[in-house]
Write a structure and sequence with these properties.
8-stranded mixed sheet
Amino acid sequence: YGTILNELNEAKDDSNIFVDPYGNIRYRGADPNNYVEFNGETWRIIGIIDGKVKLIRDESIGKYSWDSSNYKINNGSGINEWSQADLMKLLNPGYENENILDGSEQKVTGSLYWNNGNGKCYNGWKNSTIDCSFDGQNGNSKGLSEEAKSMIEKSTWYLGGIYNMGQRHLDTISVLMDDERGTEVYKTPEPPTTYDNDNISRTTIWNGYVGLMYPSDYVQATLTTLNKCYTITLNSWNSDCVTKNWLYNSTYWQWTMSPSSWFAYGPLVVFSNGQVNTHHGYFDGEVHPVVNLKSSVKISNLDSNDGSINSPYKLSI
């Protein structure tokens, strides 16, 4: 881990590495040398965030709901509280015995990704499900190996709500980061409506192993050459603003971890057109797991590999 810290610190002057308003070291640009071999797969280093090396899986593990619900709760659109979300329970340990009946009366078991399991995953409105597998066979995504799990640090993740992406810009990124680390959350109205009736008290902190990227992770991964993109609101970005953003995916939209404080069922997503905005939690967005590494994790091939796609860093503990 110290080796990773030293490597990034020494490369601070690289145009693809910079320090954010909170003092975190991050990678940006179209294709920086931030590739690592983790879990026998290609992952990438977001940066050193809050003193921990933060990784994201390069390829999606599939398209699943962030959260869904039965029709009596938020009209089946889900609940944007990560500490109870269906996707959180899919990715993290401790939910193996939590069988939930979905709308088809089929049981959904938690922790499938963490345990390399097979079963049902939420994938639509009113608790709709699809078959899902994380055994790594026949083209399936694979879950986490025992070695990979031993490298992951249980961490504090921020769940502050974001009210309006139409007021957030790249040149005031600290405001967005303050939102994510803040205390604003959605509150069920009185009286509740059909779409906003879950009556759940939102949290602003979650402790766990596997999360997702924040909107600020995505936004700061861009190295834009267009000055106007710094002042365009993030819900109005276009492909010109993200042509040099290694977290951008033009083929499908991606979930982030942050909830909207405007809608009961709306997490924030990165759309395939480059914009960041709220979406219904029940939709099937691409899932790229994110983890923080333990301080004991080292790069085992630093002398021979440079972190490029053809020469990724290899991790050991």
